[in-house]
């Protein structure tokens, strides 16, 4: 199992946000450790899938990634508790697990599910504080802009996703 | 054939999309295609509002992937939505009818706003497509599979390079959008979202869409907006792409800003651009262009005021608008 901080660094490395000195050290780690290599390669794959819309996934790779997801523990919260079994799964079957399983790795990295949220927001707040990077002015502008498209009678795709994900 | 000419051909037969027309007998193929595109989008909007569903979403912007969880339900005629980031800083937005709450763990603050009841977090389509065909073509594209689900692609293609295109993959069975993209002038995605898991039900997911329990750790913040008559505006906009009009003028105070700023809202019916005017500042200032996913923001100083133009439009559009802003009092 890959240590969490090393996994986080993999994300920073793939995003090309690591400072050159640290990146040199991380490259040595990639050379030495198969698990780090594997994580970095998965993150590159995920980015490629989303960037190109294509899934360069071999027959067995998606399944392997999916297996990996089930084996590794959640980081931020205990296993998700289902509150209702009445929901019927209509749409996404094994298909998503196959073609998009790689993407799910990213989702898995911060899995909190509903269980964490049911415990209240403060459950994740400690972790959040450590990584938050905000430009207060731009956040305020984004909020005001996202919330006012309806004033113009216009629409927008993903109006609030930027707010939820905005980091800098 | 260039994109503009291709679109012009489609727009040549464009119609205003008001109430549904009973017969297509007199329509040209282009008109039929555009009408069909709008009908798909209308059906999608209706399905998004009517169905209860939840799923994990991968959201890509600026070459970064964000994992989110989305829940939507319709219970007793009231829509509920929740959008939660699965990674730090784990922000969350909850909508309960017309009440939207933003939770910011990093500042331990929660902000509440009121919005029209039908505005979705995911795909917020215009209330009407009337007039949009002057600036966009609605094309029914190929049928493709997204995660082995059969989808119909709908392309919203702008007539010029001052606005982004859109592409939506609509599930042919449920009519829900499985994937969407904002596309730049070269057709390259600048922002995209795809469901990586989705469950649909006729029943509400229950407490999973209810807001978080009130926490004493979180401070309540609120925003204020004072609507001002457009005639009272001290600014002129001398350079605005065709189709964009002033839709609103107000003075807003949004946390964490401690003072109100002027907000001029422009829209062409689908894309919107905000102009923020902050009070004069003496501190050193550098003009800057900032990109947040598909949103571009350009900030410059005019007569001491800090003016930011922001919107889901290409950089050249925010530049053009910003460079055409003039302070009326300085003209005098």
Describe, in plain words, how this protein is organized in 3D:
The complex is a heterodimer of chains A (168) and B (332). Chain A folds into 2 domains: 1-77 and 92-122, no CATH class; 133-168, no CATH class. Chain A has 10 helices and 1 strand. Chain A has helices at residues 4-14, 20-32, 34-52, 61-71, 94-99, 101-109, 113-118, 122-131, 136-146, 161-165; one strand at residues 156-157. Chain A is elongated. The two termini of chain A are 30 Å apart. Chain B has 2 domains: 3-209, Lipoprotein localisation LolA/LolB/LppX (outer membrane lipoprotein receptor (LolB), chain A, Clam); 223-331, 2-Layer Sandwich (Phosphorylase Kinase, domain 1), CATH 3.30.200. The relative contact order of chain B is 0.13. Residues 1-26 of chain B have low confidence and may be disordered. With 332 residues, chain B is mainly beta. In chain B, a hairpin with a 4-residue loop joins strand 17 and strand 18. The interface between A and B is large, with 79 and 109 residues. Strand 1 (156-157) of chain A pairs antiparallel with strand 7 of chain B.
């Amino acid at each position: 199992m890959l240590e969490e901080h090393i996994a986080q660094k993999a994300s920073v490395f793939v995003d090309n946000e690591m400072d050159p000195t640290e990146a040199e050290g991380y490259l040595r780690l990639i050379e030495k450790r198969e698990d780090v290599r594997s994580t970095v390669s998965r993150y590159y794959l995920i980015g490629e899938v989303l960037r190109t819309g294509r899934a360069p996934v071999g027959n067995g790779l998606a399944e392997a990634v999916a297996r990996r997801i089930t084996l590794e523990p959640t980081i931020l919260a205990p296993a998700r508790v289902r509150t209702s079994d009445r929901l019927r799964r209509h749409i996404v079957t094994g298909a998503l697990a196959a073609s998009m399983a790689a993407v799910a790795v990213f989702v898995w990295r911060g899995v909190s599910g509903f269980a964490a949220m049911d415990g209240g927001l403060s459950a994740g707040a400690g972790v959040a504080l450590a990584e938050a990077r905000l430009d207060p002015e731009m956040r305020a502008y984004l909020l005001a802009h996202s919330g006012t498209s309806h004033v113009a009678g216009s629409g927008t795709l993903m109006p609030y996703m930027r707010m939820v994900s905005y980091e800098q | 054939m260039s994109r503009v000419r291709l679109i012009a051909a489609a727009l040549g037969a464009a119609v205003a999309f008001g109430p549904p027309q009973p017969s297509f007998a007199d329509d040209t193929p282009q008109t039929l295609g555009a009408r069909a595109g709008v009908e798909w989008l209308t059906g999608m909007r209706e399905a998004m509002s009517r169905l209860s569903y939840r799923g994990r979403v991968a959201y890509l912007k600026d070459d970064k992937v964000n994992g989110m969880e989305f829940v939507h339900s319709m219970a007793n005629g009231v829509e509920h939505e929740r959008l939660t980031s699965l990674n730090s800083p784990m922000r969350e937005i909850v909508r309960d009818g017309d009440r939207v709450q933003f939770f910011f763990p990093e500042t331990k603050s929660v902000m509440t706003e009121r919005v029209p009841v039908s505005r979705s977090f995911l795909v917020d389509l215009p209330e009407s497509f009337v007039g949009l065909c002057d600036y966009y073509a609605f094309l029914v594209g190929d049928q493709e599979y997204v995660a082995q689900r059969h989808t119909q692609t709908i392309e919203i293609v702008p007539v010029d390079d001052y606005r982004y295109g859109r592409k939506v993959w609509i599930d042919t069975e449920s009519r829900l959008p499985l994937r969407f993209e904002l596309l730049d002038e070269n057709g390259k995605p600048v922002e995209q979202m795809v469901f990586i898991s989705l469950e649909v039900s006729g029943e509400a997911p229950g407490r999973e869409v209810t807001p978080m329990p009130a926490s004493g750790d979180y401070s309540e913040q609120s925003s204020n907006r004072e609507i001002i008559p457009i005639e009272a505006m001290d600014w002129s906009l001398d350079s605005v792409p065709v189709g964009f009009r002033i839709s609103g003028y107000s003075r807003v105070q949004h946390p964490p800003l401690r003072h109100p700023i002027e907000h001029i809202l422009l829209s062409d019916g689908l894309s919107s651009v905000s102009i923020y005017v902050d009070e004069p500042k003496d501190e050193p200032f550098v003009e800057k262009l900032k990109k947040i996913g598909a949103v571009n923001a350009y900030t410059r100083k005019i007569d001491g005021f800090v003016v930011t133009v922001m919107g889901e439009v290409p950089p050249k559009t925010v530049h053009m608008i910003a460079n055409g802003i003039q302070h009326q009092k300085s003209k005098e």
